[in-house]
Request: fold
Amino acid sequence: MKKKFFCIAIAVLMVISLSSCKTEQKNKYSTYSMDYFDTVITITGYENSKEEFDKTANEMISMLGEYHKLYSIYHRFDGLENLCTINEVVDGAHRIVKVDRRIVDLLLYAKEMYVKTNGIMNVAMGSVLSLWHDYRTIGKDNPDNAALPPMEKLKEAANHTDISKMVIDEANNTVVLTDPLMKLDVGAVAKGYATEQVAVAFEEKGVSGYVLNVGGNVRTIGSKAGGSKWTVGVENPDGEDYLAYLELDGQSLVTSGSYQRFYYVDGKAYHHIIDPKTLMPAKGYLSVSVVCKDSGLADALSTALFCLPEYDGKALVETIEDAEAMWVTEDGKKTFSSGWKQYEK
Reply:
């Protein structure tokens, strides 16, 4: 899927010892999976027994697996219409595809994020992003042949990024792209959105005392067993220590970084976060981290803020209730939104 891979983790859960309170009987357990979203999924939680934990964690991973298949843009799955099949062109056109409601809900949410970010977070950028993906893959596999996508090709692809050409029929759960050269790429939002849907589903079941870490998209479900908050670290791009330690109990933390996925052309690194205005990797930051309740919002917002000047990004964050952000500039300077410090340990 995208884009913010676990290979250079953007968030690390800091394990704190259990409360010594005599009434607390739950123990901490952890498990992981590498089966979905092309990343490592780590689940940590407090339960009375490992059997109880395993049951809940396996259900969470299974649900994430369903979202992974639905939201994949690179792979088809037998008997399933997904985003990959929506992107397919048959006889020169995209077909009308009847999909699972969870795809409709994601795309409707993506449209909301498009409006909220003034068009910066645009899932209709697939034609541009696929060019970068192909050139990056070639460059990493064959460094001697590494090259940048030609600007004329990028500009031509950018002519096919009008999100209004993504037509959704909510009543019938169908999607069609009316521009035959348009492609969807949900890498800026899908992982966070799926993480949030799983977390909410288990919150509604009364589950608490868990953390989902889906390739660095961290979503806490309640507090720890003893009532204390989870401590989450934001990794330093240079690999030394952490930029910040946050205390969370029900919030999400997502970081977008220029150091997470990139390739070299003529000795210069080009990362994967593409500015829709320049069609080139966004400049100015090493990382942008977002804390808020909704992991989907944190995912989309961290990408959008990475592509905005700091002044505009801060103005955007201040319009979104409960969202806070930290920017790390290319020279290592840290700046914060007005409420970020309330989360710092």
